[in-house]
Amino acid sequence: MEEIKQSNIKVFYNKCVRVWKTLKKPTRKEFEMTAKVSAIGIVILGIIGFVISILIGFFN
User: Fold this and answer.
1) Which pLDDT value is given to residue 31?
2) How confident is the model at residue 6 (pLDDT cuts 50, 70, 90)?
3) How far, in Å, CA of 1 to CA of 44, rounded?
4) Angle CA(31)–CA(48)–CA(51) in degrees, nearest 5?
5) Tell me, what DSSP letter sits at residue 1?
6) φ, ψ of residue 27 in degrees (nearest 5)
7) Could you tell me which of 34, 14, 16, 37 has the C-alpha nearest to residue 25?
8) Contact 34, 25 (CB under 8 A)
9) pLDDT for 7-50, tens place per residue?
């Protein structure tokens, strides 16, 4: 049982190291695009939530 835990931890660690080595710092343009897309998504979810709350209030 202990060997399986150590083996799983070692596999997980190796996967983490592999991902860490492939990471790169985003360029300013990439960061701005990600921020814009995230902001648009948050706004859309807010609008949907607002419309649902108005509809629930209207039908009560």
Assistant:
1) 96
2) confident
3) 48
4) 145
5) -
6) -75, 170
7) 34
8) no
9) 888 899 999 999 999 998 999 999 999 999 999 999 999 999 99
